[in-house]
C-alpha cells in the first residue's frame, strides 16, 4: 500500500523530514473493511483514528426510535474517529461503517501519544484536526437549526463533492436531516427550478 496520500495530508499542515515520515509510517496499521462491515459500533471504546485511502466510511448514531442520523462521511483523504470516545477513552456512541469495500490506515491512540513525544510537530497536526472537527460539528449544529433542507444539501455538495452521485439518496437525506421521500421531492424541485 502506498502511503503517499496520508503523507500529502500531513504536508498540508506540517513539514516532515524523510526520517520523520518513515517513523510515522511504522506506527500505522493497514486494514481493509468490507462493504457493510463496522470499524466501530456504539458502546465500543475508540482506540484508533482512521485515515481512508480508498472507499468510503460513514459515521452515524441511531436514536431510540431506531432512526439513523449520519454525522459524517469519510471518502479518500479524510480522517474519521469517534472523537468523544477517542479523547476520553469511554464508550462511544458512533457507529463507523464501510459504505463500500474500503482501505484504511489506523493510528492507535497509544502510537499517537508516542508520536507526540518523538516528533512534537504531530501535536500541532492533530490539534488542527481536532479544532477543524469541533468547528465543523458546531457549524453543522447551527446549520441544522437555522438553514432550510435545500441550503443544507448545498453545503453537503460543497463539503463532499465526490460523493454527490456516489451515495444512496437515503444516506444524503439522513446527513441533511430529512426523510428520503422529502429529499427526493426536494431534488426534483431543485432540478425543475434549473430549467
From TrEMBL:
CDD domains: CAP_ED. InterPro entries: cNMP-bd_dom, cNMP-bd_dom_sf, RmlC-like_jellyroll. It comes from the Bacteria. Residues 31-118 form the Cyclic nucleotide-binding domain. SUPFAM superfamilies: cAMP-binding domain-like (SSF51206). This is CRP-like cAMP-binding protein. The lineage of its organism: Bacteria, Pseudomonadati, Bacteroidota, Sphingobacteriia, Sphingobacteriales.
Amino acid at each position: 500500500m502506498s502511503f503517499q496520500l496520508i503523507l500529502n495530508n500531513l504536508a498540508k499542515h506540517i513539514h516532515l523530514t524523510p526520517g520523520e515520515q518513515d517513523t510515522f509510517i511504522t506506527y500505522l496499521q493497514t486494514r481493509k473493511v468490507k462493504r457493510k462491515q463496522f470499524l466501530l459500533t456504539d458502546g465500543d471504546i475508540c482506540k484508533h483514528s482512521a485515515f481512508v485511502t480508498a472507499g468510503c466510511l460513514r459515521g452515524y448514531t441511531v436514536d431510540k426510535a431506531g432512526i439513523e442520523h449520519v454525522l459524517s462521511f469519510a471518502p479518500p483523504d479524510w480522517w474519521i474517529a469517534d472523537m468523544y470516545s477517542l479523547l476520553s477513552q469511554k464508550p462511544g456512541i458512533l457507529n463507523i461503517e464501510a459504505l463500500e469495500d474500503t482501505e484504511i490506515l489506523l493510528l492507535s491512540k497509544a502510537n499517537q501519544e508516542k508520536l507526540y513525544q518523538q516528533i512534537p510537530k504531530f501535536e500541532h497536526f492533530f490539534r488542527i484536526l481536532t479544532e477543524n472537527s469541533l468547528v465543523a460539528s458546531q457549524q453543522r449544529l447551527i446549520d441544522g437549526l437555522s438553514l432550510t433542507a435545500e441550503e443544507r444539501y448545498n453545503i453537503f455538495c460543497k463539503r463532499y463533492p465526490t460523493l454527490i452521485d456516489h451515495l444512496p439518496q437515503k444516506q444524503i437525506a439522513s446527513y441533511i436531516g430529512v426523510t428520503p421521500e422529502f429529499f427526493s421531492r426536494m431534488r426534483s424541485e431543485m432540478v425543475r427550478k434549473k430549467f
